[in-house]
Design a protein that fits this description.
Elements (H helix, E strand, L loop, with lengths): L1 H43 L12 H24 L9 H27 L6 H27 L9 H38 L6 H11 L10 H14 L4 H25 L2 H8 L5 H4 L7 H19 L7 H21 L4 H15 L4 H27 L9 H10 L2 H10 L4 H17 L5 H4 L17 H14 L4 H17 L21 H17 L6 H13 L8 H16 L14 H27 L22
Helix pairs in contact: 1-2, 3-4, 5-8, 5-9, 6-7, 8-9, 8-11, 11-12, 11-13, 11-24, 12-13, 12-14, 13-23, 15-17, 15-19, 16-17, 22-23, 22-24, 23-24
């Protein structure tokens, strides 16, 4: 009888504690709701009928939400969970803010589903949906507040009790926390896919969609591997939205792997959540659902970086797992090369990062096998794609000499150079007119699309193209004239590169434009919300969308010989990949487009997160152990992972 009685008494005590917490949590929540409602109405409408922020209702709502969060923070910390009160920790604040942001999304999700899936838009349905979301969000907040934000181990009175809690929490987190991260990544991926559904398209995207659907013959203006992949997805799923969904899945799966690897190395849950937050950053989220070869290349390279960080956490041995990781990484690298013609400079540093992560001392045999496998995957992939799609050669490379000759030479010099290179009279006149158009309109580059005289419907049958004779003439003109115009050529290319670095454009691609197919319909309200989010940051923090900033991050990351923490080599190689990729646009930049620095922006964001993780982890280790630790970064050794915090 003693054991059941003790169990019953313990259960009753637990229930009394939980009910007290539920009651206090409810009171604080009601007060926060009242504060949010009252402050919003006061700011937006005010006593006289027009509040201080009447013209900015979104900003008024944000201020009201922040005030409500402050009420919730102080009420729950100093009343609901007053017995767990201790020093305010950064992780506590991060969890509190994070769960409230997730709660906002959960509250809005049923309203969106009611409108989009069930076509319910009455006041009653909206209120029922919002009440449902509010109830679920409240349960999530209460569970996370109790288990992760205001935790009981802060009140542990003895070191032995604290260590026991840490050990139990670490064992539990080994299984639970990666699953929590997976749920967060899946929710974010679903949310992003919903915003972009069925996928935002550009003119390049439309070209490849038409090729994938068989409406237009496949050409090599854009790498045909993307059209082939899209065709396979459409044939398999019956939906053109499958490509945008695949992009989102690759990104969020990769970020989950990075977050888990970071957590295993640092033991910090807030840092792992910060890693997932990369996908929601405005300069990354802007293109997540845009079907573009630049996005494919960036996500493929990011996947290899994630595999490298994951491989560093593999225990000794596990040779089969290491070879499997290497094979998967090489397939991603081969795809990056096939999907973007100038991806090779960016691939060169990422490849050794993967190999060194798998084997700190690979040896000559493994290096040769890895290099040979990458070359084989790329060559075989190219042959297979070409044999299946049979792309028509359209000689896109002629764009570069066309830009150079029409901008470095005067129209009269273009005429003379074209005659010397053997151009037909009609093509000679077209080149002269293109040079005159660019000069009159003050257009710096992209002559083929901006200045060259095209006939009506020239892209309807096969898209942009040069004939073999036109391409040969342009190459001969370049070889004959540019050596004699070296000074003008260098000035022109420095000018275009300078524009690319400091005047980047197109931070956001709309979900619809004049060339969008009729069967591609995006949600205009979600498109508008995403546009406001991205363009607002582009206006307030323009450096996030400009090449010079990410080039500076990459140069700093590359040039410093040693970085503190376990990722010194990875930081340098990621930076070098970005530097090489941006540098390859010096002689080829066709316009100042943000998509050309999407990979450097993604890699630079990862670099900044890893730098922050290394600094914070080192500071925490110094606070816990005042004895100076050896500088492991000096030898690129792998420090043991930190035990995760509960």
């Amino acid at each position: 009888m003693l054991r059941p009685t003790a169990w019953i008494r313990g259960s009753l005590a637990w229930m009394r504690t939980v009910w007290r917490e539920i009651a206090a949590f409810g009171v604080v929540g009601a007060l926060a709701f009242a504060v949010e409602t009252a402050s919003f109405n006061l700011l937006a409408f005010g006593p006289p009928g027009e509040g201080l922020m009447h013209s900015s209702p979104v900003a008024a709502s944000a201020v009201a939400t922040l005030l409500a969060m402050l009420v919730s923070w102080f009420g729950n910390r100093y009343w609901t969970y007053r017995d767990r009160k201790g020093p305010v920790a950064p992780g506590e604040l991060a969890w509190f803010v994070g769960v409230n942001l997730v709660g906002l999304a959960i509250t809005a999700a049923p309203v969106h589903l009611a409108h989009q899936l069930f076509s319910l838009s009455t006041p009653l349905s909206d209120n029922v949906a919002r009440l449902t979301g509010w109830a679920v969000a409240t349960l999530v907040r209460f569970s996370v507040y109790r288990g992760l934000v205001f935790t009981s181990d802060r009140g542990a009175s003895s070191d032995a009790a604290r260590q026991m809690v840490l050990r139990k929490g670490a064992r539990r987190d080994d299984q639970i926390w990666p699953a929590c991260l997976a749920l967060m990544a899946a929710f974010c991926g679903w949310m992003v896919s919903t915003v972009f559904h069925p996928g935002f398209l550009t003119r390049d995207s439309v070209e490849q969609l038409l090729q994938a659907q068989g409406t237009r013959p496949v050409t090599d203006w854009h790498p045909p591997v993307m059209a082939l992949l899209w065709r396979g997805l459409i044939d398999t799923t019956g939906a053109l939205s499958a490509m945008a969904a695949l992009q989102s899945a690759v990104l969020w799966g990769t970020l989950w792997l990075l977050a888990v690897s970071l957590w295993k190395r640092t033991g910090s849950r807030p840092l792992s959540v910060l890693m997932l937050g990369i996908g929601l950053a405005p300069h990354i989220a802007n293109f997540t659902g845009v079907v573009w070869k630049d996005v494919h290349m960036a996500y493929a390279l990011l996947a290899v970086a994630a595999l490298a960080l994951f491989a560093r956490e593999l225990p000794e041995g596990h040779d089969r797992a290491r070879w499997a990781v290497l094979t998967l990484g090489l397939l991603f690298l081969a795809y990056a090369i096939l999907v973007r013609k100038n991806a090779f400079p960016a691939v060169v540093p990422i490849f050794p990062m993967l190999v060194w992560a798998l084997w700190p001392a690979p040896g000559k045999r493994r290096w040769l096998l890895a290099v040979g496998s990458l070359l084989a995957f790329t060559a075989v992939g190219s042959v297979v794609v070409s044999s299946v799609t049979r792309p028509m050669p359209v000689r896109q490379y002629a764009q570069i000499p066309l830009d150079d000759v029409t901008h470095v030479l005067s129209p009269d010099e273009v005429r003379s150079a074209a005659e010397q290179a053997g151009a037909t009279p009609s093509f000679r006149d077209d080149l002269v007119l293109a040079a005159q158009n660019c000069q009159r309109k003050r257009i710096l580059w992209d002559t083929y699309f901006n200045c060259y005289p095209h006939g009506p419907g020239h892209r309807d049958k096969m898209g942009p193209h040069f004939t073999a004779g036109e391409a040969d003439v342009l190459v001969r003109m370049w070889l004959q004239q540019m050596p004699h115009e070296a000074s003008g050529y260098v000035k022109y290319r420095i000018r275009t590169f300078n524009r690319l670095l400091f005047e980047g454009n197109l931070p956001y691609v709309s979900g619809s434009f004049s060339g969008t197919p009729a069967n591609v319909k995006v949600d205009p309200s979600l498109d508008s919300a995403l546009r406001s989010y991205v363009t607002g940051f582009a206006r307030d923090v323009p450096a996030l969308f400009q090449a010079w900033f990410w080039l500076a991050v990459a140069l700093v990351s590359t040039c410093r010989r040693r970085w503190p923490g376990p990722w010194s080599r990875e930081l340098r190689l990621l930076g070098l990949s970005s530097v090489l990729y941006i540098a390859c646009y010096l002689p080829t930049a066709p316009q100042a487009n943000y998509r050309y620095v999407y990979w450097p922006a993604l890699a630079g964001t990862l670099i900044l997160v890893l730098m922050a993780a290394a600094v914070l982890t080192r500071s925490r280790a110094a606070a816990e152990d005042p004895e100076p630790a050896p500088d492991r970064a000096a030898t690129d050794e792998w420090p043991a992972p930190v035990s995760p915090k509960p």
